[in-house]
């Protein structure tokens, strides 16, 4: 194109050359915009999908309770719009007693083979509803969605790519953002790589969180966190094992993080890839 312009400069006036340059810039901009269209993004995603060496089934569990139908439909439709096709969605209603909600979920269940709907007879809380959904999960991995979450179309594809990059991963989590009523992104949460100290005071790995199903079901006498991958710019780190007894919770006193386990208190310190705990007197 540059060579053609040099030739044309000898035979065309300056205003014509300026017009040709403007047309060239518009064509370049048009090609860039085309690459950002939903169709172009889906075509690119299909190419990435074909490059995956493995495509594990991801079971998404979503508990609901008196959910606004607008947000429910947005959540379910965002799953239906995933570029990655190997998923199932398990929706468990925690005895909302809402006929409109039940009707909407029954329609999704009847229309889509990958969607399962279960209604609990008695209100049991979000944890029990999630566990009820996990009982129906058939995937090698299970993901957790709130009833008002919305996934980007490439969300599960990025998870699958992280799992393909390191097949030993047990946990994958991603960045998240909040949407205004008008659907505008307004509060991005750009998360760090796995940080056991940060995890003591913040549940930052949710939205979106995907866990190997065998690990999620594993009965343990003490909490264990295995390798976690960050879907973004951070790298994967090694195993982290907590040696605390069960039924502990984090407490921050004077800016210091402690673990309160019944009548015993522990203070964590990070050594290599392991969190160790020292028994301390209860802080005042």
What does this structure look like?
Strand 12 (264-271) and strand 13 (274-280) form a beta hairpin. The chain is 34% helix and 23% strand. It has 9 helices and 13 strands. Strands 3-2-1-4-6-5-8 form a 7-stranded mixed sheet, sandwiched between helices. It has a 4-stranded antiparallel sheet with strand order 10-11-12-13, with no helix packed on it. The protein is extended and about 90 Å long. With 284 residues, the protein is α/β, with parallel strands linked by helices. It starts with a helix and ends with a strand. It has 3 domains: 2-36; 49-231, Spore Coat Polysaccharide Biosynthesis Protein SpsA, Chain A; 243-280, no CATH class.
Which key terms come to mind for this protein?
23% strand, Spore Coat Polysaccharide Biosynthesis Protein SpsA, Chain A
List the helices and strands and how they pair.
Blueprint: H1 2-9, H2 14-35, H3 38-50, E1 58-64, H4 69-80, E2 87-93, H5 99-111, E3 115-119, H6 126-134, E4 141-144, H7 155-165, E5 171-174, H8 196-199, E6 209-212, H9 213-216, E7 224-225, E8 228-231, E9 240-241, E10 249-253, E11 256-261, E12 264-271, E13 274-280
Parallel strand pairs: 1-2, 1-4, 2-3, 5-8
Antiparallel strand pairs: 4-6, 5-6, 7-9, 10-11, 11-12, 12-13
